[in-house]
Automatic annotation (TrEMBL):
This is Class II fructose-bisphosphate aldolase. It holds the Pfam family F_bP_aldolase. Its cofactor is Zn(2+). InterPro entries: Aldolase_TIM, Class_II_FBP_aldolase, FBA_II. PANTHER family: D-TAGATOSE-1,6-BISPHOSPHATE ALDOLASE, D-TAGATOSE-1,6-BISPHOSPHATE ALDOLASE SUBUNIT GATY-RELATED.
Amino acid sequence: MPLVTASQLIYGARAERRGVGAFNVIQVEHAEAFVAAAARAGTGVVLQISQNAAKYHGGLEPIALATLAIARASSAPVVVHLDHAEDRALVSEAIALGLNSVMYDGSALDYEANVEATADVVREAHARGVFVEAELGKVGGKDGVHAPGVRTDPAEAVAFVAATGVDALAVAVGSSHAMTDRTAALDFERIAELRAVVPVPLVLHGSSGVADADLTRAVEEGMTKINISTHLNNTLTRALRTYLDQNPAVVDPRKYLGAGRDAMRDEVVRLLGVLNAA
């Protein structure tokens, strides 16, 4: 199946009050697991490559081309997305490589600078038919600090979308990046307020720290794209440790990485059910 557009996948889910799982690719095994899970669940997924993952691989191209190849071979609808890019040149590279969705993260800038930079990304991306996500109201945790009090202002969000032309907006509603426990307290009232006035799909970052029932409710209240990364890396790591503890003589990485890939696949199937439980 060819890549589907992010607009098809994400706006379709928004209209039906369903959640779209967006999962971060670090190794090829991640992409394989997520695509296999999508096929089993019979739903689309977003495969995300972050700026940090590109740096780990020495550049975006190696992991992006591998992920695109896996996506194109999928029987399920798949979007390949650049996640949390603060480097403007990386956004242009992602578009040139064929990713069909990008997130430009200008949330560290002041409001006017964020609007200007994001609008510039939108002009370039839309000329190539590429979907653009942006962020307003900085989500906690990127600097290692959990910031549960940060919230996106609905009026500012409406103005930002109008000024930039973005296709989706990541908002701060109580979640935080890189949480290893699932104790985040989401502001469901703020989610509903944002959903009522913001004309584009809302994105929940830092969803690894959100419990299953709250993920389902977040979708019910108006979130559409749900980003999950750390939780799946925990799943992978636990599976690797278990396999190696049980098989201390094994040195073939295909065996233990395969066990980790299978564990991530099964957890993503489960999570896709959680996101669509509404």
